[in-house]
Amino acid sequence: MLTGTLGERRLRITVELSNDEIAQMSRLTNQPDSAQAVAQAAREYLRIRRLRELSAMSGRVEYEDNWEQLEALELAEVRFPQ
Q1: pTM of the full structure
Q2: Based on the number of CB atoms within 10 Å of its own CB, is 68 exposed (0-12), middle (13-18) or buried (19 or more)?
Q3: Per-domain residue ranges for the chain?
């Protein structure tokens, strides 16, 4: 059984993996504990998937290159202590 976190909720799951798969995960994650190795591998998988999704959006997101104008407006609204 593994315990993971989903928001504030913790989940327990059972994962069936071969000894070789567990050994590879332990080696690649540098985690001697198999549960920690699987949890870290799952987190890394999610991180990589999110990066791939973000990369796939490259060139598809429209934006205005007006950050300098927006920054000037924001700074004009903020009163800094003198």
Answers
A1: 0.60
A2: exposed
A3: 2-60
- Residue range 46-59: mean pLDDT, rounded: 90
* Cα dihedral 43, 44, 50, 54 sign: positive
Closest CA to 43 of 54, 57, 29, 56: 29
CB 66 within 8 A of CB 77: no
pLDDT at 3 over 90: no
Tracing tokens 């927006």 back to the chain, one arrives at 70
Q: How confident is the model at residue 4 (pLDDT cuts 50, 70, 90)?
A: low
| Rg, the chain, Cα only | 22
pLDDT score, position 31: 94
